Every structure is written in C-alpha cells, then in structure tokens.
Amino acid sequence: MNKLFLILLLYIVISCKKEALKSEVVLEKEASKPRVQPEGKSIKIDSALLISFDSKILTDFYKSTEYRTVWQSDKKRKIILEELLTSDEEGLNPENYKVKALSNFEKKLATLDSVDLATYDVLLTSSLQKYISHLTNGTLDPRKLYKNWDLKENHIDINETVAQLLNSDSLIYKIEQLKPNHLVYKKLKKALKLISTFPKENFKNLKIAGNITPNDTNPSLIDIKKRLIYWKDLQLKDSLTPVYDEETVMAVKRFQTRHGLATDEIIREVTIASLNFSKQQRIHQIIANLERWKWYPKEMGKEYVIINIPDYKLTLVKDKDTLRTHRVIVGRAKRKTPILSSKLTQVVFNPTWTVPPTILREDVIPAVLKSRSYLTNSNITVYDSNGRIVDPYEWQLSQAETYRYVQSPGTFNSLGMVKIIFPNRFSVYLHDTNHRDYFDKIDRSLSSGCVRVDNPLELTEYLLNDPVNWDLEKITTILQNERTKFVKIKEDVSFHLLYWTAWSENNKLIFRDDIYNLDANLYNKLRN
Questions:
Q1: What domain range is 128 assigned to?
Q2: What pTM, to 2 d.p., does this model score?
C-alpha cells in the first residue's frame, strides 16, 4: 500500500511539473502578443467572420481578445471613426478604410443585432490596422517601386499599437504620435489645407511665342495675369491690360520665387510651364509628397544632414535648429541621385577618383576612342587587372571595361579637394567639384549621381569639430600638399538624401520642379 501511495504521489508531482512547464511556455509565447481585456459588455465573435477578412494580423488580434468585441466605448469608437473620415488630411484615401460602411453601422448602432455589432467591431479594427500601417509606412512600398531607393521600413507592431490605443485615456494624442512629426510633413499638410481654399478653375494652357520682358505688350499677358491673380501673386483688378507693367513684374517674381525659378523678371517657357499646372495637379503633387514622407525615417537623429534633391539644398540640423545650408548639385535624370539614409563617417582630403562603371562606359571610353591624349590630359592613370599601369597607347577597347581608371588628386580632380563618405550600396558620396561655377545655375541636376556641395571646406570644418587640429588654416595646408588624407568624423551625424517637391512657408504654397518625374506616377499608383 505504501509503495502504491509513493508511486501515485510521484506521478502527481511529475504531472504538475509538466503542467507548470507547459504553462510557462504558453505564457512566454503569449508575451509577444498584446493581451486585450475588452471593456464593457462585449460580444462573442464567430471565427468564420474573421476568416472572411483573410487577414492574419486581424485574426491574431482577436485571438488576444478571446474572440470578443473591443470597441464598446462610444467615445473611442467615434474618435477612431472621425480619424478615418478625415484621413484625407494626411494625404490618404478615406475609401481605403471602409468609412461609408463604418458610418452606417455607427448611425444604426442602437438597432444592430449581435452579428452586426461583431461585424462592425471587426471592420473598425481592420480599418484601424490599415490606417496605422499607412500612417507609419505609407500606402505603397518604395522598395518595390524604385531600384535606387534604399530606405528601411519603419518598424511598428500594429496589434500592440491597437492594444495601446484601446487602453489609452488620451486616444487623440496617441494617434497623433503615429504620424510623421517632421516639420516638412507638417508643412505639406498645411499646403494641402491652403490649396483646398482655392476655387475651382478651368484655365486653358498658356502659350507664348518667345520671351516676354518688362514693358512688353503681349495678348497672352491678360491670361497670365488671371493665373497670377488665381495663385494670389497678383492682386485682383477691375480691368486687365496686355502690358507687362511693374506690378505684374513683381507678381511674376513672387511666383518664380515660390517655384524655385530664376527671378529675372523675364517670362520664359519654364515660367509658363509652372503657370500651366492646375489646382488638381498641385493637389496630386502634395499628396504624392505626403506619401513619400511616410516612407522616410521617423527619427532623423539628434544631429543630421538632410538634402532635398529637387531643391538642390543641403541643410544641417542639430536639436531641431538649422545651423547651416549649402547649395548642391545632384544627379541628372538619366543618372539619378539615390534616396537613402546613412551616417557621415569620414572625410577624404585630396581624394583620388576611381571612375565608376556608368561614367566609364558612357563618358570615358568614348572620349579615349576619340583621343588617347584624353587620359593624360585628365590626369587619369589606367591599371590592368594585375595592377600594372597601362600606357594610353597600349590601351585596348576589348579590355577597356576590365581596366581600373584612377584620377590623381588636385584642383583638376572631378571630386575637387574634399570628399565626405557615408556608407551606401550605390557608391555615392558628397564632394567638392572642379566646376564651382555650376552652383550659380538654377537647374543643378548635372552630376552622375553623387552630390557636389558648395563651400565644402566650411562644412567639413564643422563636421570634424576640432578647432585645434582641423580649422580652415590646417585644412588648407593639407590640401596644398596634394596628398590624400583620411580623417574620421567623430560626431554622430545622420545623413538623409530625400526627395520632395512641395511644402508651404508662411501661408504660401511652395513647389519645385519634379526633376525625376516621380510625382504624377506615384499619385496614379496611390489612387488606382
């Protein structure tokens, strides 16, 4: 009897240990999923309803609620619904969130049976999940759209976020925190509000034969003035004349400034092209830019360099204050500058330049075929696969793409006197240039993909942040000896190469030329 009792006791202990172990595994597994405790009187949800939505993330969420409804709070439900109804303010499409069906459910709430209440709850959660995803990462995936965009996805646990919203006493604030918080995004939202105040228009495209200069008389000026009045660059008059008077000159300059055009008072085709944009086209442009800003990093860094490619502008920001701006030259349409985020790591003084494959094929090889003296005149040394120097007159076309082409340091070097490195898979970098006169051009999409910086030595001095060893005087001495020198950037400076063509400043709409023709195509993909 005693033996039987001991065996039975041992079996119970072992069984309890196994059960405890099983419980620990379950708890550990569930720890990665949100635990949602529905408030108020919840309703059981049929799993078949969830299957009809064909969404694992939705099913996982309701597993955590033990298949019960969660949106019993009238206040929270209405806040979510209002957010979805006004999602167009974020450049999103309310139709993507089933707002008509949700609104109908809400209106009939008092008469809904348990099946409809469950359907309403699941539909609201599904729409909220999609909205959170779109707010934090955009509607489309840039990694699938563009080969030369290298942006990491903004990580978010959507179900954990929904659970936090459910448990929050400050739901509106929590939703605001999900939205991009960068100043440019806010300026884009402001631009969308501003342009919505403009009346409908049905302007026909403007055409001019030749340029229009101050004091000219031209029949097209009446329509040009109407367009300037519409965009609030010219004040409304009782009568309009075909004379390019002083008041209109000032209006044209205001318009040109807002659009990043040369403010030289002359009305050229490029000004007419900007005037021909309709209100609807500009709305589409703003929405495309709002989408792009949802792809960009949520945290730019405490200190960062940001370049807006279409604005040809580099800005250095620290603790949300703009400390420096520099003009830049970016890649032309056939050799686009990539969009990416990285860190600034190193400065190279008196850099050599190894000719990249595209420039080699499209520029250098054709130039060598015309004249072997091109290599000598350009201070380019050619190396074969064994590292042996190839004499320009021994150069062979059949081997041309196997050679390595290196340009010596110096004022003639294509990279100029300094190069600033940030790790990336495109082999692009910031650098000086031996064509500094190009910075005076309005259209500065002129490079082969890398970014040329105006006044790069001042930027370099700031980045090295070492007044004792790396002031401008010391930098100048290093440059004069024409020896290549690498210096590490010790400060943590993030780097962002981005693309946006619209925003607002002081209640005025600002636009830039879409140099890579991305806006219209992106808008069409968003809405189709």
A1: 47-179
A2: 0.89
